[in-house]
Amino acid sequence: MKKPNPKIYTGKVRKNLDLIIATTSDVTGIPVNRIMSKERTDEVVMARWIIWWCCIKWLNLTLSGCGKFFGRDHATVIHALEKTSYRLLLDRDRFFRRNIEAVTEELGCPEIVPAEAHIYA
Q: Number of structural domains, the chain?
C-alpha cells in the first residue's frame, strides 16, 4: 500500500477536501486519523467511500488524485464508487444512505444521485 500524500492538493481544493473529511468524520463518529489510516474495518471503509464519492461528485477530483491523497490507487476509488452507486441505486443499505444524506446535507450539497456517471469519465 502506498503512503498517503496529503500535499497533493492545496488551496481551495484542499480546504474543501478537508471539510468533506471532517464532516464525514462528524456524521459517522469515526476520527479523521482512523479514516486516513490503513485500517480496513467496514465502518472506516464506508467513511472513505462517502468521502471519495463526494470528492468525485462535487470537487471533480481525479480518481488517481483521490486515491493518492489516501495512499490508495485509482482502482480502489473506482471500486468504492461502484459499490457506493450500487448501494444507492438498490436502496438496500439504508444506514449507508442516511450517512451520505447527512454528510451532503451538512455540506449543503445538491440532492444525491449515484456517482456512476463519474466512474469512467
A: 1
